[in-house]
Write a structure and sequence with these properties.
- This protein is mainly α.
- It has helices at about 1-25, 30-35, 40-60, 70-90, 90-100, 105-125.
- It has one domain.
- The longest helix has 23 residues, at about 1-25.
Amino acid sequence: MPNSKTIAGLIGPTLVAMCLALLVNLNSFPALVESLSRDPMLIFVSGGLLFLAGLAIVRIHNRWGADWTVLVTILGWLALVGGLIRMLFPIQLAEVATKVSQEAGLIAAEAVVLLLVGAFLTYKAYSRRHAVNV
């Protein structure tokens, strides 16, 4: 459980901050993605970093129990696979991202879902009620 809380304490606030920033800048998002789509190397490099983060999580937290900690494992695997896909297909993803970025409703809905996941993980990581005696 200490690893779960530590990783959740990193992922949760990061998701909250990123999703809030995305929602605040939702109108600018298509322009941001447009500039990103002109630089597939940035997608490739971010894929490498995402792959590394996912691999680190999976290496120390590959638990498939029936409690909230499985969410940490799932996010680790999603990061690992998402990073690999970005590294393998950066040019194709740049094209897809440009098309998807025009769907403001879809982007906002995804951001809200991830914001809730981040808030949940933050709560589990930092609330005293869920403290772990180490």
